TrEMBL record, chain A:
The keyword Membrane applies. The chain crosses the membrane at residues 20-52, 59-83, 95-116, 201-223. It comes from the Bacteria. It is found in: Cell membrane. GO terms for cellular component: plasma membrane. InterPro entries: ABC_perm_TupB-like, MetI-like, MetI-like_sf. This is ABC transporter permease. It is a multi-pass membrane protein. Keywords: Membrane, Transmembrane, Transmembrane helix. It comes from Marinobacter guineae. The keyword rRNA-binding does not apply. One of its GO terms (biological process) is transmembrane transport.
TrEMBL record, chain B:
It is found in: Cell inner membrane. GO terms for cellular component: plasma membrane. Residues 20-241 form the ABC transporter domain. PANTHER family: AMINO ACID IMPORT ATP-BINDING PROTEIN, GLUTAMATE_ASPARTATE IMPORT ATP-BINDING PROTEIN GLTL. This is ABC transporter ATP-binding protein. GO terms for molecular function: ATP binding; ATP hydrolysis activity. InterPro entries: AAA+_ATPase, ABC_transporter-like_ATP-bd, ABC_transporter-like_CS, MetN_ABC_transporter-like, P-loop_NTPase. Residues 1-21 form the signal peptide. Its main location: membrane. Belongs to the ABC transporter superfamily. Pfam families: ABC_tran. It comes from Marinobacter guineae. Keywords: ATP-binding, Cell inner membrane, Cell membrane, Membrane, Nucleotide-binding, Signal, Transport.
Length: 232, 247
């Protein structure tokens, strides 16, 4: 029984094994921070593209939609090149720090938040436009109203972004380096520990990650149900 | 037209609301002329009821007057120096996904009413329109009649000089219609110029000071209500009043 990897994984979890929880904590910190930054930039960006008509708008929408499927290793490579010693942002000295991982995840999540919020805000604007014009609102004034009224939809979008950030492995591996105690997160540890044959730790982290994804999806579902009941 | 309904003047506005003029206004979409060209002036006491069969261009006329659409020819004019404060109530009220009171506070906020005055104005308006009990209710779960009253309350807090209403009662039951009509009278008493479309002759009889009659995208007649209902001038209006099908 004691040799069963699953059993050992559970005992690690239940005994609050310090290295394991450190990894979980860092994962959450990096992903939450990345999603927060992506939201602050991405929601207004999405709303702006929904509100204003300008040359090249169609191109912007296509690029945002396409970047939703950006392969994480490509994002990792780009951020790596930017942050490497010889790169344009090399002076920041961020490569192989949690900061670099946050940047990589922002690059991955920002297009999702911007593209999906653009869609939601545009749908809502179609419905509200006449009333807004009647109230004499400028486009800039419409933006906060639309973002607030789309809050439930945007929360679901936010959870989707968090799911992508926390489940991703390629980019954070490349720019973080998977250094024990510094930049080791759940996904990179699972890759490493599985390679080393340390299955209990890998499995323990896998269970935490899976639980997290479940919770996020349950949250998204509940938010959707709640908003349907509140706003009809 | 200024002498119309003179007795009402005493009880109504201290300041008469600005007159609305259509100066050769026409509206075309994709080469098709949908309205006009039409010229008229609304400078009476009102309320002005815009009547006519479906597709006559009533809603279009209201949207052009309110500035939601721009005429492809001619222009909309106001007797005031500045564009007057206006509000519009739609057939389907467009309410924000927030509580009833938050809808009013939002309207006040976008009109730069100081923050500390907003709540009081909002609650006063809710009380006036019988919505105090649902102040905190999400606006979109209110009944159809309550939603339309909330839309009227939103217009009320903006103290418009001109209020446009586009078929505001067409989706409502009789009790709710009564409430909406009472609200329209309150606006009128306050001195707001009312311009309202309806396809309901009985409603027009109850509310109208003057009637603007449209058919086929043209203004056929603009006469005081008593003239319109008893002895309409244009053949189209005569047919309409007589209950014939007018195109």
């Amino acid at each position: 029984m004691e040799n069963n990897a699953f059993y050992v994984a559970l005992s690690l979890l239940l005994n609050f094994d310090a290295p394991l929880y450190q990894i979980v904590a860092l994962s959450l910190q990096v992903s939450l921070f990345a999603v927060l930054i992506a939201a602050v930039l991405g929601f207004p960006l999405g709303a702006a593209v929904a509100l204003w008509r300008f040359r090249g708008r169609g191109g912007v929408i296509v690029v945002l939609n396409a970047l939703m499927g950006l392969p994480p290793v490509v994002a990792g490579l780009v951020v790596y090149l930017l942050l490497s010693r010889a790169g344009p942002l090399g002076e920041w000295g961020l490569l192989f720090t949690p900061g670099a991982m946050v940047i990589a995840q922002v690059v991955l999540v920002l297009p999702i938040l911007a593209a999906l919020s653009r869609q939601k805000v545009e749908e809502m604007l179609d419905e509200y436009r006449d009333q807004f014009v009647s109230l004499g609102m400028s486009r800039a004034r419409m933006m906060p109203t639309l973002l607030w009224d789309a809050r439930f939809a945007l929360l679901t979008v936010l959870l989707a972004g968090f799911g992508r950030a926390s489940a991703e492995v390629g980019a954070v591996m490349m720019v973080g380096g998977n250094i024990a105690g510094v930049t080791r997160v759940m996904t990179t540890s699972i890759v490493l520990e599985t390679g080393k044959g340390n299955l209990p730790l890998a499995l323990g982290l896998g269970i935490v990650l899976l639980t997290l994804v479940m919770l996020i999806n349950a949250g998204a579902y509940l938010v959707g149900e709640f908003s349907r009941r509140r706003t009809g | 037209m200024t002498s119309m309904n003179a007795p009402l003047l005493a009880s109504s506005a201290l300041l008469s609301p600005p007159a609305l003029g259509f100066d050769g206004v026409a509206y075309s979409h994709e080469e098709r002329l949908l309205l006009g060209p039409c010229s008229f002036t609304l400078d009476g006491i009102g309320p002005t009821l815009v009547m006519g069969p479906n597709g006559a261009g009533k809603s279009l006329l209201l949207r052009l007057a309110h500035g939601l659409l721009f005429p492809t020819e001619g222009r909309v004019t106001w007797s005031s120096d500045r564009k007057p404060r206006q509000a519009m109530v739609f057939q389907q009220p467009v309410l924000l996904r927030r509580s009833a009171v938050a809808n009013l506070i939002h309207a006040l906020a976008v009109n730069n009413v100081p923050r500390r005055e907003r709540a009081k104005l909002a609650y006063d308006a809710l009380e006036r329109f019988g919505l105090t009990a649902c102040a905190k209710t999400p606006a979109r779960v209110l009944s159809g009649g309550q939603q339309q009253r909330l839309a009227l309350a939103r217009a009320w807090v903006l103290s418009p000089q001109v209020l446009f209403l586009d078929e505001p009662t067409s989706a409502l039951d009789p009790a709710a219609i009564k409430a909406v009509e009472a609200a329209v009278r309150e606006f009128h008493q306050r001195g707001t110029r009312i311009v309202m479309t309806t396809h309901d002759i009985h409603q027009a009889r109850r509310l109208a000071g003057d009637v603007l009659f449209l058919s086929g995208g043209k203004v056929r007649e603009h006469t005081p209500a008593d003239v319109f209902f008893d002895a309409p001038v244009s053949p189209e209006a005569q047919a309409f009043i007589a209950g014939e099908l007018v195109e």
